[in-house]
# Entry
Amino acid sequence: MTGFGAATLEAEGWAFQVEVRSVNHRHLLVKIRLAPEFSAAEGDVEACVRERIERGAIHVHVDAQSPAPGEAEIDAALAKRYRARIARLASELDLEDSLSLSTLLSLPGVIGAQSRRPAENERLRRALVRATEKALDAMIHMREVEGAALGKDLLRNARGMRKLAQRIAKQMPNVVRSHQRNLRERVEELLDGQDVLAPTDLAREIAVLADRLDVSEELARLGSHLDQLDGLLARGGRVGRELDFLVQEIFREVNTLGAKCSDARVAHWVIEAKTLAERLREQVQNLE
# Structure
């Protein structure tokens, strides 16, 4: 399912901007891009996503800005080492030592932002998770709207399959009678009037033929699966994986119907049912 959500949150002088995007995927795939300062919080963000999402390719982008940087700190020991080495180099090259304080302070590492306290970092991690949850709320709402539309389409396709199953059930007695009549005619034609086949033998073959063409069990299971599909959609929530399994069983019954009956009209209805089943399978793979 597709969706997008964004959220902003400020805490401890930091401003978090979180964007969450979702695209179709039958499993859960989480990709996170964090600001370098908070790379250690990637596990917290991923756990937040996995707690609320079961399916989809989820992309999380977190930007963090600090409008109020920490207090500047001077590394005096490093500055002294710089000063000693520069003075020694000036002496070796017989040059005037004209190092100024401003030049010394501009050297790498001499001035840096004061490290934040661990307790403060923990508060920032919690704020980052809250911002992620807010973005997920917006994305999930968008996915729910899409899911409702998909649910209506699933029900429409399921109703189409019910109608086809009813047509097949109504037609099958005619199919069985037609096959039995054809069997009698072929036997009579082969025997050419000779009475060498016992009536019980013919009756047994007709019974075997009727049993081979009996699709009542397949139609009953198909109806049961469609009832369960309706029930899951009515229940709502995270039913995508259950629907995925159920549609596989629906497909299995439709295939069996096609294999059991060679009647042209029934074969046409089975093809229509397979088309609807394929639509169901494509749709449920995207549902949460």
The chain has a mean pLDDT of 82. The radius of gyration is 36 Å. The beta strands are 3-11, 14-23, 28-33, 56-65, 72-74, 111-113. Residues 74 and 179 are 97 Å apart (CA to CA).
